[in-house]
Amino acid sequence: MTEFLQHLVNGLSLGTIYALIALGYTMVYGVLKLINFAHGDVYMVGAFAGYYLGSVTGTDRAPGMVGAALVTLGAMAVCGALGYVIERFAYRPLRNRARLTALITAIGVSFLLEYGFQLSPIVRTPVEFPPGPSPRFFPALLELGEPLTFLGVTVPRIDLLGLVVALVLMIGLQLIVYRTRFGMAMRAASFDPQVAGLMGIPVNRIISWTFVLGSALAAAAGIINASSRPKIEPLFGLMSGLKAFVAAVLGGIGSVPGAMVGGLVLGLTEEYVAGYTSSQYRDAIAFTVLILVLLVRPEGLFGRATVEKV
Amino acid sequence: MARARAVLRSVLPFLVGLPILLGVQALSPPDYTLILVNVGVNVILAVSLNVVNGFTGQFSLGHAGFMAVGAYTAAKITLAFSGVQLAFVPEAVSDQLVFALALAASMVTAAAAGFLVGMPSLRLRGDYLAIVTLGFGEIIRSVIENMKFLGQATGLSGLPPYTNIAWVGVSAIATVVMARRLAVSTQGRALFAIREDEVAAEAMGVDTTGYKVRAFVISSAYAGLAGGLIAHAILLTTPRMFTFVRSIEVVVMVVLGGLGSITGSVVAAVVLTVALEGLREFQQYRMVAYAAGLIVLMLLRPQGIFGTRELWDLAPFRRLPRPRPFGGRASTGPEGASPTAVRDDSTHGGRP
Question: Any signal peptide, and if so, which residues (chain B) (predicted)?
């Protein structure tokens, strides 16, 4: 029982991260019909931005609530800007070309970030950038004290906080998408970009902001994850990104609640399967889930089936 | 007479190609052999992937997985036979027979894996197919990493050094010949029809799933062959040789050469392999340049260097009339189609 509950806690913690990254995928896919392959790497950049900002502002030496909030917001801003740049210079010129082209470009951007961050440092002091291939230790941004123990289950406080922050962000996003003019424009652009443009919606600007928003969420996910599992390296976004994509598909790509549920379901599935069978197969589990979902219910849990039009 | 000509047509590429390859090997320093083998293996990989990505227009990202299946099959067989000499034949011949058997088996197992992966996933389109094939590649790697029988993460080492220029050359030429003859056949036309417009092809009575699966199986079989060859050239197989990055490298070759252009794939495979070999001392910057190159290529020339054209289509004085970019007999195939039209999914509402 204790083991079962412990897996539940770990799975929720992992699922929160997947859900936050999956939101970015789902938003971009919803608006552009593009799998933003580089999203997982934006998440990685977010964690590194937090690492650098933490050491620049001194939050890593004197942890505190204000510092942590500043670092998180700063990292979200950095990644939002990165998302804007990626969209503006890599994806926008390809907007009206074959979708394969955009997919290959996305893979290119992903590789550029991954290998760019593995280069040996150019800026040496006070913090080395790029960080190089060796893993870094992400400093604790908050002093939270001992983990809670509940029915023999260890619940790290940072995971609880992460869950709360993630839920707040998700609810905020849900409000933005369904309760604001921007959200309405986003949904219109997703429904039909051409007609939305004719109706006076600045489609390009909406798409840019969608990228900014999604990338900022990825950065938050990066910091939450790095606070709980403090080893960061340039390649760690790759697998998380792919799994988050699986979560988005599982929930029904294009749907915000779907991404949340998909992320949590995937995190729990992975934790339970790996916990009760062999943890060696951890990475393969997500892809197996993906294949099963696509075979059984390709539109995902929350998605609506689309009919092929000729 | 016609039969003799057909036989000659099949044999001619080997008669011309092999002496050239052996000549190149004889002229280049002996330590370049491994590079030549690499070039050949990459040609096999790029041309075979082109059958799926270029001819059929289905985007697969799992080529390394099939390569791994082939490499491990061949490695297991040659290791099982190491030290065993077949009766009545001299040692050298015995070794070559074992290697031939191993390569054939690697093609069969990779084809089987291709069938298993292709059957369910080829019902999907575009981006989804890309992700699922990527996932299958990772699953294959993950399974290998966990099987004691296959040496887990350390892999299999101590393979006999059977791969030589002749084996690689024959395999590479065979792959090119296969692709070319497929392109000018009825089967090939069906594949191009699927690439141009899947819904229309289906409506015209093309069994789209069947053809896609067949193309996928053929492509995987050759990937398996490439795996078997590279394993016996570097005398080692590890799961790390067959990651997602490896698949991407092959995709880059296909895209650079032009989706659908056989000669383009060959040229791109040769150029990229040699260029990357030359850049080996800039190890760190190599992949960054690769990624940047990919983005720039997509922005400036998304159809690749050759597009769907072949090398000889670029010559200023070529035989007229040649109405279709894939050549072949002009009388076959539907009239009025425009094979050069670039497909733009966005006009279809952008569904997966």
Answer: none
Q: Is B134 near chain A, with CB under 8 Å? A: yes
Q: How far apart are CA A133 and CA B283, in angstroms?
A: 13
d(CA A38, CA A105): 9
Q: What is the pLDDT along chain B (352 residues), one digit of tens a residue?
A: 677 887 777 777 777 777 887 787 777 777 777 888 889 999 999 999 999 988 888 888 889 999 999 999 999 888 888 777 666 777 777 788 888 889 999 999 999 999 988 887 777 766 778 888 888 888 888 888 888 788 777 888 888 888 888 888 889 988 988 888 888 888 889 999 988 888 888 888 888 888 999 999 999 999 999 999 999 888 888 888 888 888 888 988 888 888 888 888 898 888 888 887 777 777 678 778 878 888 888 888 877 777 777 776 666 655 555 555 554 444 444 444 444 444 444 433 333 3
Q: What residue spans define the domains of chain A?
A: 1-125+146-296
Task: Tell me if B127 and A35 make a contact (CB, 8 A cut-off).
Answer: yes
Q: How far apart are CA B218 and CA B73, in angstroms?
A: 17
Which residues in chain B touch residue A266, judged by CB atoms under 8 angstroms apart? Answer: none
Query: Strands, E, within A89-219: which ranges?
Result: 136-137, 148-150, 153-155
**Which residues of chain A are within 8 Å of residue B250 when distances are taken between CB atoms?**
none
Q: A137: which strand partners?
A: A231
**Residue to substitute from A86, A96, A115, interface B, most B β-carbons within 10 A:** A115
User: Nearest by CB to A294, which of B126, B132, B143?
Assistant: B132
Q: How much is the ipTM here?
A: 0.81
Omega of the bond prior to A130 within 30 degrees of 0, cis?
yes
Q: CB–CB of B139 and A116 under 8 A?
A: no
Question: CB neighbours of A141 closer than 8 A, spacing ≥ 6?
Answer: A50, A54, A59, A60, A63, A67, A68, A71, A72, A223, A227
CATH topology of domain A1-125+146-296: ABC transporter involved in vitamin B12 uptake, BtuC (1.10.3470)
In eight-state DSSP terms, residue A61 is T
List the single residue in A94, A115, A249 with the smallest CB-CB distance to B298: A94
Chain A residues lying within 8 Å of B138, measured CB to CB: 283-284, 287
Query: What is the rounded distance in angstroms from the CA atom of residue B173 to the CA atom of residue B177?
Result: 6
Residue of B nearest to A242 (CA): B131
Question: Cα–Cα–Cα angle for B234, B235, B239, nearest 5°?
Answer: 85
Residue B55's nearest CA partner among B170, B185, B173, B174 is B185
Q: Is the pTM of this model over 0.95?
A: no
| Distance in angstroms (rounded) separating the CA atoms of residues B314 and B47 | 19
- B315 lies within 8 A of chain A by CB: no
* Interface contact A111-B350, CB threshold 8 A: no
